[in-house]
Amino acid sequence: MNAEHIAQARQVMSETVDKTKMYVDMEQSKNYAEFRPRYSDEMFKAIVDYCKETNPTLNLAVDVGCGPGMSTIGFANDDDGDDDDDDDDDDDDDDDDDDDDDDDDNDDDNGDERWLNRSSALTSVRPRSHAHQRTFPTASSRSATLTNFRSSRPELLISSAQANLSTLCHRKIVVAVLVVVVVVVVVVVVVVVVVVVVAVVMVILMAVIVVLVLEVVVVAAVLVLVLVVVVVAVVVVTVVVVVEVVVVVVVVVVIVVVIVVVVVVVLVVVVVVVVVVLHVVVAAVALIVVVVKAGAVV
After folding, report:
1. pTM
2. What kind and span of H or E run contains 59?
3. Contact by Cβ (8 Å): 173, 180
């Protein structure tokens, strides 16, 4: 027997055998709870062994599944004994209570041995019928088991197989839901992170583009302003230089004109003076001549 199967069976049974209650009404279910999960041979043997160790009063019944090595388990407390014991009590009224107890113990042992015999169960495989109809390998074992179950009056019916399957199904559902939730959360987180990163990158790119555009605009404005200032300065300097040149030329021309005028005036004065002097000299000479002539005459 696989040790892993034994450990798993002990864990499952220890978790469920003390906590599992009736799942169906006692009167309607003929005083036994029935469910049909499937186990391997190793798991079945481990569960049966553990049940016999923890609760020797349990009457174990094997229900053959749809294939070799696939079986289900039904449990019922054998507190009241079976119909065979009741028949024996009816036939043997003179027997005392001790004999009845011995018969019950023997029947329990025979029942356990009968239903724990896996070879007889696996050699006669029957197709599964309705969910609430039990089928058994042989006619005698089927009749004995049904009689035993109908005559029992358990106060607590335990279906470890049902609890095990229900627990496993619930765990699988919870694990599946948790996996789906984790996957959804991871996908949402990844999407949110990607969106945030893309948004941040877009904002950074837009900011960089805006800064570059502003820098280009500022540089262009500065260049245009400098160009305007240079042009204005050149124009002003040119105008000033031209004005200065014109003024200088005008001044020079005026000076030259004045000089020419002065020279002309001086020359005119000199000429006039010379002419006057010449006239005076001529007049004097003429006068002298006249005087001389007059003196001579005299």
Report:
1. 0.30
2. strand 58-64
3. no
End-to-end CA distance of the chain: 202
One domain for residues 34 and 129: yes
294 and 212 in a common domain: yes
State whether 128 and 27 are in the same domain. Answer: yes
Structure tokens at 8: 């798993």
**Domain residues for 205?**
180-298
**Which pair of tokens denotes residue 30?**
């003929």
- Consecutive H or E run containing 76: strand 71-77
Q: How many angstroms separate the CA atoms of 10 and 18, rounded?
A: 12
CB 58 within 8 A of CB 51: yes
Q: Which H or E element spans position 263? A: helix 160-297
Q: Say how far residue 122 (Cα) sits from the centre of its chain.
A: 52
Query: What are the tens digits of pLDDT across the range 80-135?
Result: 444 444 444 444 444 444 444 444 444 444 444 444 443 333 333 333 444 444 44
Quick check: helix, strand or coil at residue 25?
Answer: coil
